[in-house]
Amino acid sequence: MLLRGLAAASRLTLDINILMLIAVAGAVALKDYAEAGVIVFLFTTAEWLETLACTKASAGMSSLMSMIPPKAVLAETGEVVNVRDIGVGAVIAVRAGEMVPVDGVVVDGQSEVDERSLTGESYPVPKQPQSEVWAGTLNLDGYIAVRTMALAENSTVAKMESLVEEAQQSKSKTQRLIDSCARYYTPAVVVLGAGVALLPPLLGARDAERWFRLALVLLVSACPCALVLSTPVATFCALLTAARMGVLVKGGDVLESLGEIRAVAFDKTGTITRGEFSVDMFDVVGHKVQMSYLLYWISSIESKSSHPMAAALVEYAQSKSIEPKPECVAQFRILPGEGIYGEIDGKRIYVGNKRVLARGSSCQTVPERMNGLKGVSIGYVICDGDLVGVFSFSDDCRTGAAEAIRELASMGISSVLLTGDSAEAAVHAQQQLGGALEELHSELFPEDKVRLVGALKARAGPTMMVGDGMNDAPALATADVGVSMGISGSAAAMETSHATLMSSDILRVPEAVRLGRRARRTIAVNMVSSIAAKAAVLALAVAWRPVLWAAVLADVGTCLLVVLNSMLLLGEGRGRRGKEEACRATARSLEMRRSQLAAVSPDAAAKSVGKTGGDASKGCHCCHKPSKSPEHSVAIDVRAGEQRESPTAATCAPAKKVEVTGSVNGSAAPAS
């Protein structure tokens, strides 16, 4: 205490150590040596307990950052090398029970990997060739060979470390306000204490010793240490808990904003839905291009895109024995809100939604069977100005998406859908969710999403945007809290967002909001308790008699209580994974085992399918609950031409007791 007090004095700053030294010196001056000893004992003991509590809190952060093993084994030679010496493209061996040392792709073997340290998911994830694995995750029960995709210092867990460190250094609005006030508050308290000790005796007041003791109590009681600690300790614990949950929150400001959210806007593809598209139908329009050439051109161009639809088209072409050649594509570019463009074999090709039809110079008839499709995304191919191809995708909603939206609704938070997809696809998603969304907005450009997020902020209050694509980046930046789907999402979305989900579990969204609200309550309790304790001691000193050791106990005790109360946040969010996760884990595990059996013996795999009923997920009563559309659900699709000049965007306005029964020219037709 003495050395720290002298160090603070040399910096011309006033802290708790100087105030305690003044209190001890005052007690000695009053010849109350026992009280001086009690002050030193209480302060030292409380400081030790506070340090112990803070060390325990930060131990979780240390364990989070030490997940990467220091060594790795090269698959080809068996040589043990330092992880930091492994280059991109090297193949490493990861045996059962070992931690994955570097981000990469499985090239050989099958296993289950525990990713809870990174994503917060409590169930193992099956891995097979072409599956991605991340540094810091645990290989459970098989051998896998992994080709590295990044250096150790650029791994996902290293980025987590960097983001968490930046978040710790980023102060919230409340903390900045308290720090600013404390800068002037402490010197003012010292001046006030000196005034209480000197002015009454100078003015002829009796009992100078009592006034001197009261001044010492005032100095100690008015020390703002507990108030200064009230915010940063709670913020630190909440940020650590969020990271353990698989949610990276980029600062105290974002954490406070999470607790204020009143509306959430969801992107559809890859956020509400799985983003795992399958091509249901592919037709050539007219007779200008053969199917094989068309698939070759499209797959080559789409190979240069990271969109989930692009991956589905490439996979479809490969299923037809056509290999894409992205190196043959020239002038590739992304058309936000439309699709992509590329040149190959001298052909100028556009691939995208119906907006790309405007790129064509002629109007071809779309196959009749496309007109009756519902709940799918329809794409078009323009080659040298002519419509030459049309195709359809299907994509299902994520498990837990409807539950997440219902949880948000139970917290008084409204949910809306913002998608660049068709009105039919938006309504289909709403039906899969059991009518949980309050509004649907479809066929949107990126600037439309920005406009609608701004309108939602003005109407409902603090707004969150959840998305995963490059098109979502402007809307994520506009929202009060932008949340990106980190591992599966685009780098642009992760960079511009305020928080990142490390897993695809959308149930983390209401959990993050709940954590933000709990953190705000904890900070408020910390502030009120620290002020109330000091006010009580001061009132006791004025009304009865000043007791210096009681003031010290109140000060250091309040600091300790603030730390302990903040540490309760470390247990937030645990134990929230229920039966649905167990069902999903069982389904994934059975599916992987079945594929392993099929590789060895097709007959054994067929018997396994018969025993489990063909599809484990369908036999699970938890993961497939029938849901009834609530009366207040909204599914009216209105053309957005009324709101802006572009006739291609569509939006849904809230309404009551209305259900969609069909669609007309991309707009849903309501029926009362």
TrEMBL record:
<keyword id="KW-0479">Metal-binding</keyword>
<keyword id="KW-0067">ATP-binding</keyword>
<dbReference type="InterPro" id="IPR036412">
    <property type="entry name" value="HAD-like_sf"/>
</dbReference>
<feature type="domain" description="P-type ATPase A">
    <location>
        <begin position="69"/>
        <end position="165"/>
    </location>
</feature>
<keyword id="KW-0547">Nucleotide-binding</keyword>
<keyword id="KW-0812">Transmembrane</keyword>
<feature type="transmembrane region" description="Helical">
    <location>
        <begin position="12"/>
        <end position="30"/>
    </location>
</feature>
<comment type="similarity">
    <text>Belongs to the cation transport ATPase (P-type) (TC 3.A.3) family. Type IB subfamily.</text>
</comment>
<dbReference type="GO" id="GO:0005524">
    <property type="term" value="F:ATP binding"/>
</dbReference>
<dbReference type="Pfam" id="PF00122">
    <property type="entry name" value="E1-E2_ATPase"/>
</dbReference>
<dbReference type="InterPro" id="IPR051014">
    <property type="entry name" value="Cation_Transport_ATPase_IB"/>
</dbReference>
<feature type="transmembrane region" description="Helical">
    <location>
        <begin position="523"/>
        <end position="542"/>
    </location>
</feature>
<dbReference type="InterPro" id="IPR008250">
    <property type="entry name" value="ATPase_P-typ_transduc_dom_A_sf"/>
</dbReference>
<dbReference type="GO" id="GO:0016887">
    <property type="term" value="F:ATP hydrolysis activity"/>
</dbReference>
<dbReference type="Pfam" id="PF00702">
    <property type="entry name" value="Hydrolase"/>
</dbReference>
<dbReference type="InterPro" id="IPR044492">
    <property type="entry name" value="P_typ_ATPase_HD_dom"/>
</dbReference>
<dbReference type="InterPro" id="IPR001757">
    <property type="entry name" value="P_typ_ATPase"/>
</dbReference>
<dbReference type="InterPro" id="IPR027256">
    <property type="entry name" value="P-typ_ATPase_IB"/>
</dbReference>
<dbReference type="InterPro" id="IPR018303">
    <property type="entry name" value="ATPase_P-typ_P_site"/>
</dbReference>
<feature type="transmembrane region" description="Helical">
    <location>
        <begin position="215"/>
        <end position="240"/>
    </location>
</feature>
<dbReference type="InterPro" id="IPR059000">
    <property type="entry name" value="ATPase_P-type_domA"/>
</dbReference>
<feature type="transmembrane region" description="Helical">
    <location>
        <begin position="184"/>
        <end position="203"/>
    </location>
</feature>
<keyword id="KW-1278">Translocase</keyword>
<dbReference type="InterPro" id="IPR023214">
    <property type="entry name" value="HAD_sf"/>
</dbReference>
<keyword id="KW-1133">Transmembrane helix</keyword>
<protein>
    <recommendedName>
        <fullName>P-type ATPase A domain-containing protein</fullName>
    </recommendedName>
</protein>
<feature type="transmembrane region" description="Helical">
    <location>
        <begin position="548"/>
        <end position="570"/>
    </location>
</feature>
<dbReference type="GO" id="GO:0046872">
    <property type="term" value="F:metal ion binding"/>
</dbReference>
<dbReference type="GO" id="GO:0019829">
    <property type="term" value="F:ATPase-coupled monoatomic cation transmembrane transporter activity"/>
</dbReference>
<dbReference type="InterPro" id="IPR023299">
    <property type="entry name" value="ATPase_P-typ_cyto_dom_N"/>
</dbReference>
<feature type="transmembrane region" description="Helical">
    <location>
        <begin position="36"/>
        <end position="55"/>
    </location>
</feature>
<keyword id="KW-0472">Membrane</keyword>
<dbReference type="InterPro" id="IPR023298">
    <property type="entry name" value="ATPase_P-typ_TM_dom_sf"/>
</dbReference>
<dbReference type="GO" id="GO:0016020">
    <property type="term" value="C:membrane"/>
</dbReference>
